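ok here's the first one, seq then struct tokens
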Amino acid sequence: MSKLSGITPSGHVHLGNHLGAVRRWALDGGADDLYFVADLHGMTTPHNPAKLRSLAREQLAVLIAAGIDPERVFVQSDLARELGALTWVLECTCNYGEAARMIQFKEKSKGQAGVRLSLLTYPALMAADILLQGADEVPVGEDQRQHVELTRTLAKRFNGTYGDVFTIPRAVLPPAGARVKDLADPTRKMSKSARDAVGVVFVLDEPDQIRRKIRRAVTDGGSVPVHAPETRPGMANLLEILAACRGGSPAELADEFTSYGAVKDAVAEAVVEELRPLRSRAMALLDDVAELDRVRKAGAERARERGSHRLDAALRMIGAN
């Protein structure tokens, strides 16, 4: 049983990404699981090529620094030729109406001029990511579940029309991770693409930066710390971050403190210590250009080898070679 998960370099990796996904990948990943930096997915809207390239390298370093086996990590664009060919095969298997019904396409294209075609065809590329590697399970949030269902449809249609090539994957909701909110606006999730980074803790932030951001976090009108997400979302967010870093329940942790300031200090130190080894290893990798390039090249070769027979079979059965 193999799983496939990816992270898009739309911005720097933040605390929510680490606590909610990356840390779990490192702890629970199986020998056949794969994790990739989805840089091709970052091209569906206008982007800066140099920044995208830099963010992809940074994310690769962070995944490895978090403890994920380097043999299970690759960068999506390193398989651009294979994915490009398979994406075309799947576009030839997909109906226009199926692609146009995707909720993300409807939402992101609404009221926009000059929408890129890739925003419409992106689900075919996501299907190629999954089917090329023969993944059995794809852990996704609700916002991506529809895309995995389309992948299942395309795999079944291709297999039924031309012959069995693809594993039929299934979407799985990952175990509930820390739902880290923006420190400046605890009504929204912490985001890589947030316009204002004042409320976002990035995993490569300096320790003093982390402390400043957490001490400036928006809290609520009370004076005694309590875990009440509906009425005091700012304090609840801090307590949930502390619980994710230290263990224990947010409600029980609240009883340890008599002031909001004490909570912020405890959260700041817990986050600094949680991220310290990751930051140190990631920065060392980013400084060692040759080693990171070696790991990246090896990861691409393994992912390419793992999927090459499926691509060859699909092209042969569809009449392309």
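and now the second one, same deal
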Amino acid sequence: MKKYINGKVYNTLTAKKCGEYDRGYRSSYEWYHEELYLKKTGEFFLWGEGHAASKYCTYCQNGGSDPGENIFPITYDAAREWAEKHLEPDKYDEIFGEITADSENKIVAISISKSAHEKIKRNAQLKGISVSKYIEQLIENDE
């Protein structure tokens, strides 16, 4: 499926499929299937299809609904949350990097622009590392 949203193209044929999830039984009216995709730009989106009582249904003019499909752009954080719920840990690690508890790390709060934050998350994801590791590499390479 290909869809234009806010001047951007989302295409399941050209993006990388990261994982998929089925909710319920295919015979249920509430059944749906979702797939998480990653564009070459580092943006995520969900493609889904579902029956007439699912969140992917299409509404008819007569008040009823039919099965349908759609694409939704999602943020990096929403993609991580979706993956935490629906993917195996190894697959999650492959996409977002391994979550580790390192007692030698220091948690800090910084304020950066929203666009810089999105760029950092996107670049870290493209390298397959955490945001923290990406920032550490930027600092280490700056010396």
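notes on #2: The mean pLDDT is 87. DSSP finds four helices and eight strands in the chain.
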